[in-house]
Write a structure and sequence with these properties.
The structure holds two protein chains of two kinds. Chain A is mainly beta. Helices cover about 15% and strands about 45% of the residues of chain A. Chain A contains four helices and 20 strands. Chain A has a nine-stranded antiparallel beta sheet with strand order 6-2-3-4-19-18-17-11-15. In chain A, α3 packs antiparallel against α4. Chain A starts with a strand and ends with a strand. Chain B is mainly β. Chain B has no helices and two strands. The radius of gyration of chain B is 10 Å and the shape is rod-shaped. The chains are: A mainly beta, B mainly beta. β10 (about 125) of chain A pairs antiparallel with β2 of chain B.
């Protein structure tokens, strides 16, 4: 494997976004890119990351290799990379370590780290292709704000999506709160758009602890997409350049 | 009260 990223920033932010949810995981490398799928310890949430080969310049991977990595350790190594550094990830065929090289843009500094790999026996889940009943795109910062505000009211949020908009409702001991985002297009700045497509109304409840955790990915993308169908896990997607993505799946709360 | 569902009850193990 040899994969070079123009800016370490992307990889730093991806790892930062998932490291509190999953601790040990395989980065599955093949000729299509670097993928990761892992559940949290309590099997409530699942993270699915894809960094396509096109995200890297260049990308070369001659055979499928899983790189079993302790994300806490990886975070320590990535601290040494500045956001604007060129990052190269390298590995041998049957590796004991993954090699990370950080180069300053002005090329007067090269840092090289070897991170020990671990054998991780990870369950892979089949994520079915789902035609979601409702899809809502919104500014990622707005979603983060809503989740953190409502977490002060309640542990759970009910998300309801209709043609009029998407509503987040929390009921707690101190009272209730709700936030509605109406569909709208901002002609000056499409990053501010709220876009809803709906085949049938949905209403589901989720743990805000997990949703606020997913929001650690906010810096990766201006917009976030929520995909909902009744009685299936919510998908929260941060789309990245070159068809790469960071997706989180969250099992709904089960009715009263 | 409401319980928390598990992701493995929706997505099958490969």
């Amino acid at each position: 494997l040899e994969a070079r990223l123009e800016a370490a920033d992307l990889f730093k932010k991806v790892v930062e976004a998932i490291k509190d949810l999953v601790q040990h995981c395989n980065f599955d490398c093949n000729d299509s890119g670097i993928a990761l799928q892992a559940m949290d310890n309590s099997h409530v949430a699942l993270v699915s990351m894809m960094l396509t080969a096109d995200t890297f310049t260049p990308f070369r991977c001659d055979r499928n290799i899983p790189l079993g990595i302790d994300l806490t350790s990886l975070t320590k190594v990535l601290r040494a990379a500045q956001s604007s550094d060129i990052l190269t990830i390298k590995s041998e065929d049957a590796p004991d370590v993954v090699n990370l090289v950080f180069e300053g843009k002005d090329q007067d500094r090269i840092s090289e780290y070897d991170l020990k790999l671990m054998d991780i026996d990870q369950e892979h889940l089949g994520i079915p292709d789902t035609e979601y009943a409702a899809t809502a795109s919104m500014p990622a910062a707005d979603f983060k704000r809503i989740c953190s505000d409502l977490l002060l009211i309640s542990e759970a949020v009910s998300i309801e999506c209709t043609k009029e908009g998407i509503t987040f409702k929390a009921e707690g001991d101190i009272g209730n709160g709700s936030v509605t985002l109406r569909q709208h297009s901002d002609l000056e700045n499409s990053d501010k758009n709220v876009d809803i497509s709906l085949t049938e109304p949905v209403a589901l409840s989720f743990s805000l602890k997990y949703l606020t955790g997913f929001c650690k990915a906010t810096g990766l993308s201006n917009q976030v997409r929520l995909c909902l169908s009744n009685d299936v896990p919510l998908m929260v997607e941060y789309a990245l350049a070159n068809n790469s993505y960071l997706r989180f799946y969250l099992a709904p709360k089960i009715g009263d | 009260g409401a319980g928390q569902g598990s992701i493995t009850s929706f997505f099958a193990k490969k």
